[in-house]
Structure formats: structure tokens, C-alpha cells
Amino acid sequence: MRLYAIADIHLSYKFNRDALDELTPHPEDSLILCGDVGEKLDHLREAFRITTSLFKQVFWVPGNHELYTLPSDEDCDVKGEVKYLECVKVADEFGVVTPEDPYVQWEGEGGPCIIVPTFTLYDYSFRPAHVSRERAVEWAMEENVYATDEALLYPDPYLTRDDWCEALVAKAEARLEEAASAGLPLVIINHWPLRQDVITIPSIPRFTLWCGTKKTEDWHRRYNAKVVVTGHLHVRRTDWIDGTRFEEVSLGYPRQWQAARERGLDINDILREILPGPVDPGDVRTIWRRSG
């Protein structure tokens, strides 16, 4: 009974959709889908149909792409929180565990611990101190960085994404407090990184604006996290901070993992073992995992 994770499988790309068919069965193991499965509810249905047939249990948290409302969508009026709740309904159809479900206590290898899927969004606080919130997007655009979220991710019924993030963080913290009260270590799952210092994206450094919130930076200490599992960055890495292991588990767009395919690797090599997982090397903080 092992726990695996993968994020950012982006099924709108045929290359990635075909790769999903290469997943091998893990009848005794569980899987985390850590956000950005795709933009449409049908992407979720396809991913859940396949993964629930291969794994004993599947966990899912939303990424920004699941929250998109595309102009071409039949349900183009389904926005923001309503779109999220529609995604949760699809997960419920397949018995997939979401941030809206009761906690699951993990008794497999690396346990016991409690698995806590969370949903936080972002509030543009991952920015330099001299840049105000009002100027944040303008600051990113000075380097030609502008997230698609600004056009497709609606905060309804909240006025802003910042407001939605604030409400989500408060809700998640209440759940984390309750989970931590059981006295077991937690596996915290969230699409967006919990800390700014685990973000390294040299080609678009100002994209950090859309990568999380400083409100979560001490969650690993406050809530006794054994492992923090995230995606979003398309930069696979493992960090050890304050005795907690941080795993970035994205697959990414086809071009971003083509090098791994050219080395004879496939999606099964990108799949990341979360529990029991690797041993803390002690003298190393970051391990880069470009090929798996």
C-alpha cells in the first residue's frame, strides 16, 4: 500500500492524454491527482475513470485550469466557486476524495498519517516587498508575464481572487487544525506551493504572483506535516524544510517532459512515490527531478 502523486497532466493535449493510457495498474496503492487535470469537466471524468480503475483510492485537488471558464464552453455562465463545486460533483461520481470530504487516515506504508486535500488559490503576495498589490500585475507585465487566469479564472461570487483566496485559506486552516488534533502527522495536498522559497522558474520568475499565498508558508510546522504535495510549477523537485518533505509532482505540457520520453521514460517514471517516499538525505535541501 503505497501512495503516489502526479499533477498538471493537462489532458487537453493529446500527447498527455495518450500517456495516461500508459499508466500501469496499482491495485493496492493510492494516487493523488494534484490539480490541473484539464479545463473541462470531461477531462476530469476521463482522468477519474482511468485512475480509479488502476488505483485503490484516488485523491484530487483543483488547480487553476479546472477553474477556468472558457468562452466556448456550453456552460460559459458556470464560473468561480460554482465551477469548483461542479468539479467536486464529478469527483463524487467516481468516489474520488476532494477537499470537501472527510479526512482519510493512511494506514499503508509510511503511515499512520492523515491525508488532507486542500484548496487555497493565490493572492498575489509572492512578490517583492517594494511592489504593491495594486501594481503587482503591471510589475509582472514589465517582463511580458501575464497569466491566463486573469482572463479565464473568475472569482464569483467573490469580488476578487484575493478575496476568494482569503476565504479558502480560512476554511483550510480550520480543517487542518481539526486534522492535526488527532496527533498524527499530515500529508497536505495543494495545487499551489505553500512557500515562495520552493519556487524556481528562471524563464518567468515574475509568474510567482499566481503561485500561492504567504498565508500558508508555516503550515508545515503549524500542522505537523510529514509531506507537502504540490504541482503548478511544471518543475519537479523535492525539498526538505524543517524536517518536512516538499514534493512538486507535475507532469507538465508535452514539451516539458519530452526529454524524459527521449530517454525511454514514460508517465510511470514521472509518477512520484509520496509514502513511504525517500529518506531525508540530511545534507541536501533540494533534489531536482527533471526526468522523474
Lay out the secondary structure.
Elements: E1 3-6, H1 14-20, E2 26-33, H2 41-54, E3 55-60, H3 80-93, E4 104-106, E5 113-117, H4 136-141, H5 149-152, H6 161-180, E6 186-189, H7 219-222, E7 225-230, E8 237-241, E9 244-248, H8 254-262, H9 267-270, E10 272-275, E11 286-288
Parallel strand pairs: 1-2, 2-3, 5-6, 6-7, 7-9
Antiparallel strand pairs: 1-10, 4-5, 8-9, 8-11
The poorly predicted ranges are none
Large-scale geometry: globular
Instruction: Write the element-wise H/E pattern from the N-terminal end onward.
Output: EHEHEHEEHHHEHEEEHHEE
In what range is the share of β-strand residues?
A: 15-25%
Concise description?
This protein is an alpha/beta fold and 292 residues long. The protein has helices at 14-20, 41-54, 80-93, 136-141, 149-152, 161-180, 219-222, 254-262, 267-270, and strands at 3-6, 26-33, 55-60, 104-106, 113-117, 186-189, 225-230, 237-241, 244-248, 272-275, 286-288.
